[in-house]
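Predict the 3D structure for this chain.
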Amino acid sequence: MTISQTIWQYLAANDYWKEAVLVFSSLKDDEDARDAIRDLIISKIQYIKSSSVDKEKYVTTVLKLPREIIYEAVAIQKNKEKDYWGECEAYIEVSLWANAHTVIVDHLGPTTVISNSDGDKSHLEDIIKKFPSSGLIIPDWNKGAGIYEKYLSLLKDEGESLKDLEFLLSYLPFAKAESFEQKVPWIWCLRKWVTRFLKTPSLILPRNRRC
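Done. Predicted structure below.
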């Protein structure tokens, strides 16, 4: 181990994270420097940005680090705490849309469908609306968060019901559902929508085609 490595480890281990950032910045290899600083910020995020500490301005203006590295660390910490709403919002804060979409598909969407809480539905709707280009910047949007978007729309009697049902039947088979927790909401969505349409055919059939 070199003297420099010993210094870095000492600073990081003893909460001298500001000094450690400056030392890491002196690394000749830019990629090594970036990785070292990222790992440091992730490990020390509780001293940088939390419910009781906010040194974001210092980090961005004095240490000249990008906001992305701070909020990625916040998101990782929120994930450890199982605060998936906070994790998603941290990613959105710095436009890490792919990461935020993953959180919706893995956690927020299934939680919202199962809880059927008005608060969760409103919160998820607000998050989905923040995605640029109606979410289509995400390649698999229609197989992920897009389905939850249609789900929320139908609950509010918005949109065109027949098109929404066709959307569901087209994309639901390709939706990511690797765990039991992810599969249950999809089945629930399908059952709920089909039951609703069978009970109210006027929602899906044009007036001149109703039986």
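The radius of gyration is 23 Å.
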